[in-house]
Design goal:
The chain is of the alpha/beta class. The chain has seven helices and eight strands. Helix content is about 40%, strand content about 15%.
Length: about 250
């Protein structure tokens, strides 16, 4: 974990974790008594999933975890996120036998600023992030690097808009990168019913993007996928979207 995040972040989180009540880290991010343990378990779950797929024990893993992680930057928590589980897993996966290149595909409605912050200096890690723009977190969405693909969508964008944007930017990048492992930051807050953004996706769009990703994994990554839950704040939409995602992963 120290390889991904600044050691000072871990110490800050440990010191901020309250015995009772809530402690604010920023206007959006608070810690309760179990927050540090939950964040460590979330990161550990994703890392265990990576080890399981690389070992060949399973082909695909979904981590139904909270808190999410993709906003957590190198030295700071942010946006409900304490530790960046997917970035931690990607960086450490490069140490595993047979894993020379990793792709992180993030379709959360908010830009994966933390993942970009942690991974942009690793050419072995491709990061593709689609997101409503302009919108939170207003950071690092304009980073230009060979391994970073930022795919902004305007408020009100439809599922067809999403599919065109992804098809026009992600798939060619993944094919060129030829990842040995694909990680998914599966945020479902781009759903039309989600209260925290203004995109108009539905369950069929999440099934579509998952199907496209699994096809690429079969082509380049021996089918290996580890997906982790990011955002999603309308519970009915979250349940339906997650189910659509899982049905494709399990097919």
């Amino acid at each position: 974990m120290h390889q991904a995040h600044h050691p000072g972040l871990l110490e800050r989180l440990r010191q901020s974790n309250p015995v009772e009540g809530l402690t604010p880290l920023d206007p959006d991010t608070w810690m309760g008594p179990s927050s540090m343990a939950a964040a460590m378990q979330a990161a550990g779950s994703v890392w265990q999933g990576v080890n399981d797929v690389v070992a060949g024990d399973v082909m695909r893993v979904f981590c139904a975890v909270r808190p999410p992680g993709h906003h957590a930057e190198f030295d700071s928590p942010m946006g409900f996120c304490l530790l960046n589980s997917v970035a931690i897993a990607a960086i450490n996966a490069l140490k595993l036998p047979g894993i020379d290149r990793v792709a992180i595909l993030d379709f959360d409605v908010h830009h994966g600023n933390g993942t970009v912050d942690l991974c942009h200096q690793y050419p072995e890690i491709l990061v593709c992030s689609s997101f409503q723009h302009p919108h939170y977190p207003h950071r690092l969405h304009d980073v230009v690097a060979p391994n970073i693909v930022n795919t902004p969508l305007v408020a009100g964008a439809s599922g067809d808009d999403f599919r065109r944007a992804i098809s026009g930017s992600w798939w060619q990048a993944v094919e060129a990168h030829k990842p040995d492992l694909i990680l998914i930051s599966a945020g479902f807050d781009a759903h039309r019913d989600d209260p925290l953004a203004h995109l108009h996706l539905d369950e069929t769009d999440f099934a579509w993007v998952t199907q496209e990703i699994t096809a690429l994994a079969d082509q380049f990554s021996q089918g290996r996928i580890v997906s982790t839950l990011e955002g999603g704040y309308d519970l009915r939409a979250l349940a339906g979207s997650t189910l659509a995602h899982l049905e494709v992963l399990a097919a």
